[in-house]
Design goal:
Blueprint lengths: L1 E2 L2 E2 L23 H9 L5 H4 L5 E8 L9 E9 L4 H8 L11 E2 L26 E6 L3 H9 L4 E2 L21
């Protein structure tokens, strides 16, 4: 929970804070396509290592909405270069939950100085010969809240956590 752009505290249930005039935006989570990557035989490093996914602030600006603005946050998964086209094929079906990668390769090109120091989550091994693959991340709104400092209460999900709904991953793919 944020007040005027400052993190107040984390809560597990927002019902006590919900008001009649509240507005909700439900954002997809890249965890949704992790299952599809695994089913396609593609390794998902943070799952292999039992860690939270690595998430980084970037220099990629998001399109502003009025005074609400900020840069994109990305999650990263390493793959061998010959797997990248398969990763794109699998994840591009999930446009409602981040879709295809936004960047592949040099992290410095999107403002990330050190993969071993994620802004959120935990660092994972990027093995020799692998390339980092970056996806839009549902933590981007937190970055926009920090940048824009909107007045009032804003409630977001915590980095590495996700909202739970009754919508199955299969319903989020393109036909």
């Amino acid at each position: 929970m944020w007040q005027d752009g400052t993190l107040l505290h984390e809560v597990g249930d927002i019902r006590a804070f919900w008001r009649q005039d509240s507005v909700a935006f439900l954002l997809g989570c890249s965890f949704s396509f992790d299952e599809a990557l695994l089913q396609a035989g593609l390794p998902v490093r943070h799952i292999q290592e039992g860690k939270n996914v690595s998430m980084y602030k970037t220099t990629i600006p998001c399109r502003p909405a009025g005074r609400f603005k900020g840069n994109m946050v990305v999650s990263m998964r390493p793959f061998h270069p010959q797997q990248v086209s398969h990763v794109i094929q699998v994840t591009s079906r999930f446009k409602a939950v981040h879709g295809a990668p936004v960047h592949v390769g040099d992290p410095a090109a999107i403002g990330i100085a050190d993969l071993s120091r994620p802004d959120y989550g935990e660092a994972v091994l990027v093995a020799k010969g692998e390339v980092p693959v970056f996806f839009a991340c549902g933590v981007t709104p937190q970055n926009a809240v920090l940048t824009s400092k909107p007045r009032g209460i804003v409630i977001t999900h915590a980095p590495g956590a996700m909202f739970v709904t009754d919508v199955l991953n299969e319903a989020l793919t393109l036909s």
